[in-house]
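Weekly structure sync, notes
Attendees: PL (lead), two postdocs, one rotation student
Agenda item 3: pending single-chain targets
PL asked that the sequence for the first pending target be pasted directly into the notes so everyone works from the same version. It is reproduced below exactly as submitted, 75 residues in total.
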Amino acid sequence: MAEKLGALWVRDYTDKQGNARKLMSGNVVIGGEQTDIVVYKNDYKEEAKHPDYVIYLSKPREQKRETREEVDVPF
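Predicted structure, written out during the meeting:
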C-alpha cells in the first residue's frame, strides 16, 4: 500500500473578474511537517509542456485578510 502524503478538497471561489471557479486546498506532509497548499488550474497554459495545475503554499486566514486589506485600501 502506498504511503499517504496529504489530502485535497475541491472548493468553489469567484475570481477577480467575477467568474465562478474551482480550486483544490488541503495539505501535504513534507519532511514530517504538515504544509497547507492550494492548487489552481493553470489558465496560462499555452503548450503541452506547461503544467495543467499550479501548487502554492497557503497563507493562514488572518494573514490573507491582512494582505487583502493592505492592497484594497482606497486613496
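Discussion points:
- The first helix runs from residue 61 to 71.
- The chain has a mean pLDDT of 86.
Action: rotation student to compare against the earlier draft before next sync.
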